[in-house]
Amino acid sequence: xxxxxxxxxxxxxxxxxxxxxxxxxxxxxxxxxxxxxxxxxxxxxxxxxxxxxxxxxxxxxxxxxxxxxxxxxxxxxxxxxxxxxxxxxxxxxxxxxxxxxxxxxxxxxxxxxxxxxxxxxxxxxxxxxxxxxxxxxxxxxxxxxxxxxxxxxxxxxxxxxxxxxxxxxxxxxxxxxxxxxxxxxxxxxxxxxxxxxxxxxxxxxxxxxxxxxxxxxxxxxxxxxxxxxxxxxxxxxxxxxxxxxxxxxxxxxxxxxxxxxxxxxxxxxxxxxxxxxxxxxxxxxxxxxxxxxxxxxxxxxxxxxxxxxxxxxxxxxxxxxxxxxxxxxxxxxxxxxxxxxxxxxxxxx
Length: 349
Fold this sequence. Notes:
By secondary structure, the protein is of the alpha/beta class. The chain contains eleven helices and 14 strands. The protein folds into two domains: 8-127 and 301-328, Rossmann fold, CATH 3.40.50; 129-297 and 333-343, 2-Layer Sandwich (Dihydrodipicolinate Reductase, domain 2), CATH 3.30.360.10.
């Protein structure tokens, strides 16, 4: 366990939008000291040296070897995740990885094998697991207040890609580009977290709307041995939305939940076994249940997930709410959807 008498020495691999977000949140954490970043852009490195006064590197391996790190936040394109994680783990550096864990389940399995040989605190940035609304829904489902799940629908839409982006990692499937890996992965993980991973996926389709080389929309049906059936719809090329929006609808034998990031409505067919709710419809707003965080940027959940990661390091924790194993499970379901979509496309010519 790291000594509590000094700050945890941290670094960030990839200083784009998410890297800067993570830096802003943790740079004011009393137990954290950022000592380095790495990024392929010389412009970014020069600006970081000029304004932040910390070491910069163009290569993650050199940064990890030379910086005496306690932890690293990896916010690089998904295609580089495996190499960054393996280098960090082999050097005993606690690792936070932006989602998804890896481009393929095979890459994720390689990371898990390295982790089993050299355990460190590990976490994937599936931020919805730290959202107040979805934490409350997880408690409801865990306590079985609504009985068996009959069906569900998970939907995520946003205006991320509204033209063919020919350059950059989002346009390259090998780098984790495409709606399924980059955008729908949040919804897939939320399904795994709240309901569990499906036993089978079917009728999957990956649709191109603007992009020439990657998918812009995802559709899939998920089935479970319990009899539960669910559907996934994701579209990152929907101009009718101002920003990414998540919607979840769960039908149970004893009622129903309809939720987004800001509220959930819950219907009880009979008198509930909880004093929090009444029979019929109940509405809970995020402002009713939100737990405050020490620093707000983009949403409580963004700070909550990073503070949780730091706490896990301080406590030398062996479990995590969003572990690499969880990330691998989500990657496996993503792989199932991609494979099923290929099968569907081939069968229809």
